[in-house]
Structures are given as structure tokens and as C-alpha cells.
Amino acid sequence: MVVTGTHDPYLVVLSILVASFASYTALDLGGRVGAARGFARRVWLVAAATTMGSGIWSMHFVAMLALIMPIPMSYDIGLTALSLVVAILVTSGGFYVISRPSASRFRLVLGGIFMGLGIVTMHYTGMAAMRWHAELTHDRRFVALAVVIAIGASTVALWLAFRTTDLWQRLGAAVVMGLAISGMHYTAMRAVIFTAHGPFHAGSGRASLDQINLALAVAGTTFVILAFALIASQSEQKRIEEALRQARADLAHVNRVTTMGELTASLAHEVNQPIAAAVANAHACLNWLAGDTPNLEEARASAMSIVEDGTRAADIISRIRLLFTKASPQRELVDVNEVIREMIGLLRSEVTRYSVSVRTELEAHLPRVLGDRVQLQQVMMNLIVNGIDAMKDVDGTRELAIASRRAEHEQLMVCVSDTGVGLPPAQADQIFYAFFTTKPHGTGMGLSISRSIVESHRGRLMAADNSPRGATFQIILPTTLPTTVGAHERRRAFDHSP
Q1: Which of 217, 410, 453, 487 has CA 20 to 30 A from 314's CA?
Q2: Rg of the chain's alpha carbons, rounded to an integer?
Q3: Domain annotation covers residue 255
Q4: How far apart, in whole angstroms, are the C-alpha atoms of residue 122 and residue 184?
Q5: Which domain range does residue 285 map to?
Q6: What is the reported pLDDT for 350?
């Protein structure tokens, strides 16, 4: 006699949640595989495959427990354990194929077929573990459909596992994968025809307490394992991000030191000017005091000039030393116009050396930005030095225009334009690539580092041709504080706003 089974809706939902959570965790761990190398890569690959395989098996087992039949049934422990091993092995094989550097579409399809057929094998191994007084036959149409769904879901899972980086993209992919994996199981169950060997009694339409308890135990254990895997993944992500920030800071420091080294002659001249002026004023002060009738008023004026010259020299030295200092980024409220003026003053000798005229149009009362002063100085120094380098061999007008103004969406814009040789033709999009340079002795790191600094400040750095010649670089920075900033810093921003 043909027996018709039903499914407990709550356990069905639980099985889908298990599949989705397992998919999300596998996607997150897959991201670690792409970033790791050597032994660490193999560890994360095993972790991702084990997570996905055990999640698929757990979803399958909970879904089997959701099946309500009027026939007593139990499970063979050996075959049930075998189905778990099969799930992990086939997922490992699929992940290994697609994670290789030479992975292609053919490998993706091959891995998807291998993993899909393995999941089908896992499903029917689990079905074979069921013990009851009934004969099972299958509707071949639904079996074929289940195989297609398994291969399709596996292919999509492998494709997404090493390509999803955005949180919402990963969440969406996990939901889709969870529904696809669950869909394969319930399609395969739709293909099953149960024929009882003897009389049976009608069920209540709800899973028994033993089934619910076992399903909750399996799902709970799975959730705990997946949670630990996610915590380990997030800890590794934070460690990698911290190491990357440190590497960028070290590289930026090297770039600053290299640039300052190239400007040694100009900087020495810049420091020498106020020192020479201080010496001249000191002689004048002595002369005023050495007369038969000391002119105290003129001597006092000369002494005041000495103080001003000494202060100016100290300011220049402080700025230079600050740029040489290797320290962690310190976020504070920064006046961008002040940064621009500081860098123009620091590079004045370089500007004079190559007969470059500097024109500034700095909008007054610009809101301050939350950022690292030294890093923003480095960006401005790189752009100004690049503009000077682009014009020093050009005949005709050599003008460096620097403008600042408010922009849309609570942002400000800084434009640095020159009348130099312009951007390299057909290579304008490559100037921000690391090690790309058009200078004979350039390192190709200045613009790359500048863009990474600006992006770390939630901004953008863009380049375009200037009319009639030269190039224009635009920096866009937000003037609103990020949500992670504390209340104290928000009050400071409000107090400093115009």
C-alpha cells in the first residue's frame, strides 16, 4: 500500500536556515582561501569545505527528520556517518578544483558536476540509512530534476565561494545557495514513493518529540561549529587588515622619506633663508646698540625680527621632521586649506627653482575633515611635486593652480592643475597602479599611495586632462564623521565647524 508522508513546517524552515548559515560561513571562509598562501591556504580550504559539507549534511538530516510518516523508522548509524563523510569529501574536491590559480570555466563546471553528483550520492546514502517496513521506489523525472538542481547549486556555490566580498552580496548569495540546496533535497524527496509492507496508522501531521529533539540537537551543534568558524575567520580578517594597514603605513613612510630626500637641496635652502635673515637682523641689532646713542627702538625691532625668523625656521624644521616621523595614523580634525598652505610653503624653493607660478583659490570657512594630518600632507606634497616635475621641461607658461571648495553630499574638493606634459595617452587609467611611472627615475608609488590614503579617508582621487594642456587631479573628501566616531569627536567637529 502506498504511503504518503508530510513534512513538519518548523523543521523545514530550520533545515533551510542551517543550509543558508552553512553557505554564508563557507563563503566567508572561501574569502580567506583566496587571500592565504601555502599551508594557511590549505587550512582555510579544508575549513571551508568541511563547513559546507557538514552544513549540507546537517540540512539533509534535519530535513529527513522533518518527514512525518505513519510507519516507525530509525537510522543506521554507519550509513548516516558515511553520508557525512561523502558530503565533506565531495565538497573538498569541488573547492580544491575551483580554488586553484589556473581555475577556468571548464574546471568550474567539472567541479560543479563532481560536487553535485557527490551531494546526490550523500542524499541517497542517507536515504539508504533509513530503517522501516516499507519499499522505496523513485519517480525518475524528479530524480533527474534533483540531480540538475544539485549540480547547478554546486556550480553556483563554487563560483561564488571565491568571488563574494561585499557583506550584502555574501548574505544574498548564502540565502540563494541555502534555498537551492534545500530545494534539491525536497525535490528528491518528492521523487520517493513509499509502499508499506503491512498495516499502518495515520499520523498526527506533526513530528514526534524525539524527532524534534534530535533535529534541534543536530542543528544546534551545527550552528555552534559554524559560529566558531565565523569567529576564527573574522579574527583572521582583522589580523590581515591590521597587517595591511601597517604595510601601507610603512610604504607611505618610505615614500615620504624618498620624496624628502629628492628635495634635500630645496629644503635646505628653505631652512637657510630664515636663518640667514636672523643673522642679518642680529648684526643690525648689534649695530643699533653699538652707536654712541643706542637706538633701543630699532634694536628692539631687530630682535623681534630675529624671533620671527627663528620661529619660521623652527616651523619649517618641525614640518620636515613630522614628514620623516614613522608613527601610526592619528585621526584628528584637519583644516585642508592649512595643509595646502603648509605644503606650498615647504616647497617654495622647488617652485622658484623651476620658475613655476602658484595660483591658489581656497574657499574660506571650509569644514574640517577627520583625517591624519601627515598623510594628507603627503598627498598634497606628492601632487604638487608631480605637477612641478611635469612642467620643469616645458616651454611657455608654468602654472600650478590649487583650488578648494565645497562639493555635493557634504564633501569638499581639492583640485591641483598644472600646465605640464599631461597624462600619458591611452594610459591615463594606469597612473594610479603601483610601480607605473613615466619619470626616468620615478618609483611609481607616489600616486598609488596617495590614492590609498585618500580612500582610507573615505574619499576619492581622480585624474583628468587639463585644458589646453597639462593634468588635473581632484581629491574629494567627506566632511561628515563616520558612524564609528565617538560622541566626543562629534562634539569637537561641531565646535570647529564654521
Answers
A1: 453
A2: 35
A3: no
A4: 12
A5: 263-326
A6: 79
Provide the strand spans (E) within 22-87: 67-68, 73-75
Shared domain for 237 and 278, answered yes or no, is no
Would 341 be classed as within a structural domain?
yes
Express each pLDDT in 122-151 by its tens digit. Answer: 888 887 777 767 677 778 888 888 888 888
Q: Give the integer Cα–Cα distance in Å for 389 and 470.
A: 11
Please answer whether residues 412 and 476 qualify as being in contact, where contact means their C-beta atoms are separated by less than 8 angstroms: yes
CA dist 32 and 239 (Å) reads 12
| Contact yes or no for 34/160 (Cβ under 8 A) | no
Distance CA 376, CA 475 (A): 10
- Amino acid identity of residue 483, one-letter, is T
67-95: average pLDDT: 78
Q: Are residues 415 and 320 in the same domain?
A: no
Task: For residues 423 and 349, state if they share a domain.
Answer: yes
pLDDT band of residue 336 (cuts 50, 70, 90) is very high
Contact 382, 444 (CB under 8 A): no
Domain boundary among 326, 346, 378: 326
Q: Are strands 357-362 and 399-407 parallel, antiparallel or unpaired?
A: parallel
- Rounded mean pLDDT of 301-319? 80
Angle at 29 between CA 27 and CA 33, to 5 degrees: 110
CB atoms near residue 6 (< 10 Å): 15
**Grid coordinates representing 424?**
600619458
Q: Which residue matches cell numbers 619660521?
A: 312
Q: Report the mean per-residue pLDDT for the chain.
A: 77
CA distance 387 to 391: 6
Residue 252 included in any domain: no
Q: What are phi and psi of 159, to 5 degrees?
A: -65, -40
The answer to whether residues 139 and 84 belong to one domain is yes
Q: pTM value? A: 0.50
Please answer whether residues 391 and 398 qualify as being in contact, where contact means their C-beta atoms are separated by less than 8 angstroms.
yes
237 and 320 assigned to the same domain? no
Cell reading at 110: 567539472
| H or E segment to which residue 414 belongs | strand 411-417
Does residue 329 have a cis bond before it (omega within 30 degrees)?
A: no
Check whether residue 81 and residue 166 sit in a common domain: yes
Does residue 75 sit in helix, strand or coil?
strand
The CATH number of the domain holding residue 415 is 3.30.565.10
For 384, residues 6+ apart whose C-beta sits below 8 A from its C-beta are 343, 344, 347, 400, 402, 416
- Give the number of domains in the chain: 3
> Taking a C-beta distance cutoff of 8 angstroms, is the pair 456, 448 a contact?
no
Residues 271 and 395 both lie in one domain:
no
- Considering the domain boundaries, does residue 251 fall inside one? no
Beta carbons of 364 and 407 less than 8 angstroms apart: no
